[in-house]
Amino acid sequence: MTQKRDRSRHRWRLRTARSHPRSNWTVTKMAKAPVMADVAARAGVSHQTVSRVLNSPTLVRPETRRRVLEAIEEMGYRRNLSARALATNRTRLIGVVNPSVTHFGPSHMAMAIQDAARASGYATISAGTDSETSSLSPTLDFFLDLAVDGLIVVAPTTEMAEATRDLADTLPVVIIAPGLTSPAPMHVVAVDHDFGARLATGHLASLGHEHIAHVSGPLNWFDARARLEGWRAELTDAGLSTAHLLHAGWGADDGYDAGLELLRRHREITAVFAANDLLALGLMRRFNEVGLRVPEDVSVVGYDDISGADYYQPPLTTVRQPFDAVGHKAIDVLLAAIDGSMSTQSLIHPRLVVRGSTGRRL
Questions:
Q1: Would you give the end-to-end CA distance of the chain in angstroms?
Q2: Which DSSP string corresponds to 93-144?
Q3: What value does the mean pLDDT take over residues 31-53?
Q4: What confidence category does residue 320 fall into, taking pLDDT thresholds of 50, 70 and 90?
Q5: What is the DSSP string of 28-46?
Q6: Is residue 194 predicted with pLDDT exceeding 70?
Q7: Strands across the sheet with 150-154, in order?
């Protein structure tokens, strides 16, 4: 019986050996990953110079920087971020909270922040949230668990801005919220939408229009309120009526519906300042359907200067938001906050882009 078991075990070993060649079981020793000292030796510089190339490249002469970057590429060197975080007490990670909506402004703001962070040697981790403040708390906890160096919050609504306030006692926070005063210790960066609305409204008034309507966005949004206030202030300064006002959403369909309501309530209007370009698109479609020509019968100004605004028929006069400038400013302010700066408030001016949808009052 024992001999039979031995023969059976021997046959199993033979089958195993044939089906699993020895080479398949050979463990190949992994090549050692290059470290900063290896890159320094290849480039003929000190490891401090390699560090400067990686962290502050503008401080290194172009020729030296080129040699170091070539060595990094040739050797496949990758920084050990965990070791770096331990040594510097920084992760070089920035959290970005962005509302989970498809509106042009917030989405482009987030992209601009990401580009600016990358240019400064930081990585961003983005998390979306909806308008319910209850969904924001787990998002903020997520960033705290990641030990981000700081947080940028694109906050279109008052509720979202307020829900972020307590976190500013824990880590540096920059909030992008036009019209929000800078509550310590938060930092505020925003487009000056009041100024932008004044540009749009003043342009229409300069063309001789006296009955200038405004179609606003949802009033729980900072942007909508700031643009409404700018429109109202500019008309008041010019001695013109502020009675031609209609509240709407942000979509082209909202503008389409608002166009009919405007004509029903305010037949005397000759110009409209729409709170964004999609509203303007809907308005122009409605005006065209009822036989009103843009700009001969009614002038229209939008806001944002979205991609394709210059292909509207006629091309849309609008206010261009400086998203890249806001993104870079938000990163600059956050990095200063990480280094201990006090709370600040920064406003960036948009600019008017005049195209074919506005004309002189005949």
A1: 114
A2: EEEEEEES---HHHHHHHHHHHHHHHHTT-EEEEEEE-S-GGGHHHHHHHHH
A3: 85
A4: very high
A5: PPPPPPP-HHHHHHHHTS-
A6: yes
A7: 123-129, 93-99, 150-154, 173-176, 187-191, 345-348
The answer to whether the Cα torsion of 166, 167, 170, 175 is positive or negative is negative
- Measure the CA–CA gap between 113 and 262, rounded to whole angstroms: 37
Residues near 58 by Cβ (< 8 Å), separated by ≥ 6? none
CA dist., res. 290 & res. 284, Å (int): 10
Listed residue (109, 138, 114, 141) closest to 126, CA to CA: 114
Domains of the chain and CATH, by start: 25-79 (1.10.260.40), 92-192 (3.40.50.2300), 193-322 (3.40.50.2300)
- 10-39 exposure pattern, b = at least 16 Cβ within 10 A, e = fewer: eeeeeeeeeeeeeeeeeeeeeeeebebebb
What pTM was computed for the model? 0.74
**Run of H or E residues at 162:** helix 158-164
d(CA 241, CA 268): 12
Evaluate whether 163 touches 133 at the Cβ level (below 8 Å).
Answer: yes
Residue with tokens 């490249």: 57
| DSSP classification of residue 148 | -
